[in-house]
């Protein structure tokens, strides 16, 4: 069983776990809002918490809202630090290009994950130790399972390689 932690709370509607074993507790809207296509709004939840030291809460999107309606959270995950005592608000975004989305008081709009967090001690160094991954990031491993593992390819080779399904331009060819 995972560790349990007591969280002091003031709430108009208590966050609740929909199923045993769920990681996220549902947060409910404390106000009604209509999100026009492509717009965002800061929606109150009526929830304020006091987390113990060494913990943080993270506000994440609900998958059903994202898939069915294009509703997501602008700054996902939103971080609630242990020392914060104000109302948890959710920056919702309607990514749908044509349909507005109505949020009613009491609707489940996000999930709250409470997790232990380590406090880092940052140590300045002249050079970082090497790793297998190196500086590969931002899509360097590709999308398809059959693509070359970027960790095994020099970054300069990636920059000059043609996109999948295309051939490298020959000298004098126009692109």
From TrEMBL:
Catalytic activities: dUTP + H2O = dUMP + diphosphate + H(+)
Which GO BP terms apply? dUMP biosynthetic process; dUTP catabolic process
What InterPro entries does the annotation carry?
Answer: dUTPase (IPR008181), dUTPase-like (IPR029054), dUTPase-like_sf (IPR036157), dUTPase_trimeric (IPR033704)
- What top-level class of enzyme does the UniProt entry assign? hydrolase
Sorted keywords for this record are: Hydrolase, Magnesium, Metal-binding, Nucleotide metabolism
Q: Which CDD domains match?
A: trimeric_dUTPase
Name the residues that bind substrate: 62-64, 75, 79-81
Question: Which GO-annotated molecular functions does the record name?
Answer: dUTP diphosphatase activity; magnesium ion binding
Keyword Cell cycle part of the UniProt annotation: no
- What Enzyme Commission number(s) appear in the record? 3.6.1.23
Record pathway? Pyrimidine metabolism; dUMP biosynthesis; dUMP from dCTP (dUTP route): step 2/2
| Names of required cofactors | Mg(2+)
The dUTPase-like domain extends over: 13-142
> What does this gene product do?
This enzyme is involved in nucleotide metabolism: it produces dUMP, the immediate precursor of thymidine nucleotides and it decreases the intracellular concentration of dUTP so that uracil cannot be incorporated into DNA.
Provide the family line: Belongs to the dUTPase family.
NCBIfam families referenced in this protein's UniProt entry, alphabetically: dut, PRK00601.1
UniProt-recorded name of the protein: Deoxyuridine 5'-triphosphate nucleotidohydrolase
Q: Which organism is this protein's natural source?
A: Cryobacterium luteum
């Amino acid at each position: 069983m995972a560790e349990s932690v007591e969280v002091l709370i003031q709430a108009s509607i208590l966050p609740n776990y929909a199923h045993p074993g769920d990681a996220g507790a549902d947060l409910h809207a404390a106000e009604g809002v209509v999100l026009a296509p492509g717009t965002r709004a800061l929606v109150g939840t009526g929830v304020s918490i006091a987390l113990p030291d060494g913990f943080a809460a993270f506000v994440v999107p609900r998958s059903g809202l994202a898939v069915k309606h294009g509703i997501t959270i602008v700054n996902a995950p939103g971080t609630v630090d242990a020392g914060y005592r104000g109302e948890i608000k959710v920056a919702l975004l309607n990514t749908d290009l044509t349909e507005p989305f109505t949020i009613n008081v009491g609707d489940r709009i996000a999930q709250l994950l409470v997790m232990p967090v380590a406090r880092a001690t940052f140590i300045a160094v002249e050079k970082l130790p090497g790793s297998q991954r190196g500086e590969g990031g931002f899509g360097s491993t590709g999308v398809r399972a059959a693509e070359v593992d970027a960790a095994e390819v020099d970054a300069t080779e990636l920059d000059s390689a043609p996109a999948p399904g295309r051939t490298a331009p020959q000298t004098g060819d126009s692109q």
